[in-house]
Amino acid sequence: MRRVVLLLLTLVHATVLVPGAFGQGLVVVLNQTGSGPAPTQPTMQLTATRGRFDAPGLGQVFYNAQNKTMRVVPAILKAYLEYTPQSVQQLVAAGRGAAPQPRITYRRTGTSTVKQWPCTLYEGTRGTDKLIELCVAQGKGLPLTVADFAIVQEALDLAAPFTAPDALARIPIYGTTAKHGYAGFPVRHTFFRAGQPPIVTELVEVRREAVPPANLEVPPGYSKAGQ
């Protein structure tokens, strides 16, 4: 169960891409390989205050920016797990927090192109270990901005105290040089695992369109786990 929850939280980038100022809504489509026997296509449905992410085979994640509540619906349960700042504090106090690790350091290594997006290559290391490769795009031609990802960071901060740092490192986020060590959105994000195939996540499509409110709620018939 804990493994399923962690896997969902590693994909919380999709759940909480809740920009501070986009009109109707935002739909983001990704393509991921290396995390299972076949490619998957995680999809985000987002508004200014609510977000939903569907991770094929794993489940769904919902985030409400107004009450800072994250709800995780594993595919194997007809129930959801709820996380708030208060419940996270309780997890940490009970000794279920994640051990801190040194920050990942990024260095620029060149340029490339992913689909229609020219991007800058970065290599991310922790100590002497290469953990991540990014191809980062920004500016004209990319319909995303750092403001779109303000609540992504908020949600990552919520999950960080009880989620393994390497799990969080798998999450593509629109970064800034000051905070993340690179500037822009990773249109390709490659995460390396010892002895296993890398997990590659690429941006496929971005659409600004209305998101039905019902899509951003936990499905009817699901109850909070433990109740």
Description:
The structure is a single chain. The chain is α+β, with helices and mostly antiparallel strands and 227 residues long. The chain has one domain (2-224): outer membrane lipoprotein receptor (LolB), chain A (Clam). It is 17% helix and 38% strand. It has 6 helices and 12 strands. It has helices at residues 2-9, 12-15, 85-93, 150-159, 165-168, 177-180; strands at residues 26-33, 43-46, 50-55, 59-64, 69-74, 79-83, 105-114, 117-126, 129-137, 185-193, 196-207, 223-224. A 12-stranded mixed β-sheet has the order 7-8-9-10-11-1-2-3-4-5-6-12. The longest helix has 10 residues, at 150-159. The protein is globular, with a radius of gyration of 17 Å. The two termini are 17 Å apart.
Topology:
Elements: H1 2-9, H2 12-15, E1 26-33, E2 43-46, E3 50-55, E4 59-64, E5 69-74, E6 79-83, H3 85-93, E7 105-114, E8 117-126, E9 129-137, H4 150-159, H5 165-168, H6 177-180, E10 185-193, E11 196-207, E12 223-224
Parallel strand pairs: 6-12
Antiparallel strand pairs: 1-2, 1-11, 2-3, 3-4, 4-5, 5-6, 7-8, 8-9, 9-10, 10-11
